[in-house]
Predict the structure.
Amino acid sequence: MIGYMGAGKTTLGKPLAQQLALPFIDMDTVLEEREGKTITNLFEELGESGFREKERDILRNGIFPDAFVMATGGGAPCFFDNMDWMNHKGVTMYLRAHPKEIARRLEHEREQRPLLRSIKKEDLEEVIGQRLAVREKFYLQAQLVMENNELTVEQLLEALQSYR
Ligand SMILES: Nc1ncnc2c1ncn2[C@@H]1O[C@H](COP(=O)(O)OP(=O)(O)OP(=O)(O)O)[C@@H](O)[C@H]1O
Ligand SMILES: O=C(O)C1=C[C@@H](O)[C@@H](O)[C@H](O)C1
Ligand SMILES: [Mg+2]
């Protein structure tokens, strides 16, 4: 599951994994546990480029079960050849949401998101819109693209079944 911060990867990924009787893996959580630091601290220590290297390493070398549902970090698909790698290894699903909706969802959750914490509330929608426009060329390479506008787990399951 890929998509911008606040797209709903964690919110929908957990119940989707449950329905599929698979483990749910949140890449941000794996990174935090492996490094013993928060995402914010990792960004501060390594800079964004060092953080992206860590994400790539998790994708390539992480020890995971045979089958699982993963929510990637929001930026992970947009660096290196991570998108090709994921498309090759599994089924990718882009949860797509409108910048206005993302801004609304993240308004009170900016502190834990290093790339948004310094953006003023009134600028949030515009900045997200600009950044999303850059990222969509990666996100739209996903095998399934789902608009997350009251999207349900049942709809995700249907899309997965028809894709297979
Ligand atoms: N379809 C939805 N409708 C309304 N609110 C939603 C929806 N999906 C997610 N949210 C809310 O948006 C916020 C962010 O969602 P979530 O944490 O699942 O995003 P995420 O894609 O995992 O983001 P991140 O990349 O930052 O981890 C949460 O407060 C969640 O409750
Ligand atoms: O969109 C992004 O670049 C990010 C999303 C989060 O999942 C975290 O990986 C981090 O906050 C960066
Ligand atoms: Mg998440």
Remarks:
- The chain has one domain: 9-149.
- The mean pLDDT is 96.
- The two ends are 16 Å apart (CA to CA).
- Residues 9-149 form a domain with the Rossmann fold fold (CATH 3.40.50.300).
